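Technical note accompanying the year-one report. For the benefit of new consortium partners, we illustrate the data format agreed upon in the data management plan: each record pairs a sequence with a C-alpha cell string. No post-processing was applied to the example shown here.
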Amino acid sequence: MILTALLLMQAAAQAPQRAVDCTEPTTQTDMNICAARDYETADETMNVQWKRTLASMQKRDDADTSRGGGFGYVAALRGSQRAWLTFRDRQCVLEGGRFAGGTMQPLQQATCLAKLTRARTAQLKNLIWEN
C-alpha cells in the first residue's frame, strides 16, 4: 500500500545520478524511474484536486440547514477517499504480482498507481458542482 509507493520512490532515488529521458527510456531501470515519476505527478495532481473537492464539500455541509448543519458530505468524502486509497494500493499490488520479484514489478505497480490515481482525480473533480 503506502509501502509500495515508498518502494517506488526509493528505487527512483537510488538510481544512478544521471538524467533519465522519460520520453524514450531505454533500460528497465529508466522505465521504472519514469513510471515512478509519472505516479508522483498524478498523486500531486490528485492532492490539489482533493483540497478543492474537500472545500466544496465543506461549503455544502455549511449551507445545508435542513438537517442541523449538513448531511455530512465531508465525512462521506473522507470515508470514500480512505476506502479508495486502500483499494488502489491493494489493486496495484495484485497487478504487480504478475511480475513478482522481477524488474518489471515496480514498473507495473507504478503504472497501475498512476492510472488509478488519474481516474480518482477525475472522480473528485466531478463531485464539484455549483448550485
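Partners are asked to follow this layout when depositing records. The chain has one domain: 2-13+27-126.
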